[in-house]
Amino acid sequence: MSLRERLDRLEERERRLLGVALAIVVAGLVLFPPVTLFAFVHTRKSEVEDVRAAIQAILDEEKALEHARAEKVAITQRYSRPAPQLQAFLARLASEAGVEIPESQDRQVVPRGKKFEERSTKITLRKVGMLKLVKFLEKIEQSGHPVRITQFDVRKRGSEPDSYDVDMIVSAFDRKAPEPKAATRDAGAPSSADAGAKEEDEDTDKDKNEGEP
Hints:
Layout: H1 3-8, H2 12-80, H3 86-97, E1 103-106, E2 110-112, E3 116-128, H4 130-141, E4 147-156, E5 164-175, H5 192-211
Antiparallel strand pairs: 1-3, 2-3, 3-5, 4-5
């Protein structure tokens, strides 16, 4: 029986179902290539976005490393310049900012870790205006020396306009000089020549003692 005859013998409902099935097969054959291509492109796009994100993360890390290196260089340069004597140093900066320092007192040097020492000076300002005070603080911070304001107390003077009393402690951090390396031999240890001389003296004393009655 030919295919035509078989189709003619089908009922109307069976023919409709066969037509629907053929339409689905044809639609599948037509849509399969673009759907496959779309899935492939979408996968590639996701991979490209992942690569871009990884590259951006690397660039961000590189910028962070460069920033950290720059900060390290700045700190090294700052600590390579020892801070001057604090009272004279602060008096000069105060004069440049139009501020007077009526009271100042050096404090005891304090060790900070194994490599640094902290020198500090307490100063008192009277009836200083806020603008001059800010300029003075900026000059301290931007001096280029390893100097920091470690304590700060500001008080308004009653009803006087733009008048403040300030107590602050300014600290300078000095790098300690490297300790000399230990000697290869302790100073109190006898040398080989001293040891030989001592043995000769002991032998001489022994001979004397044997010759005595």
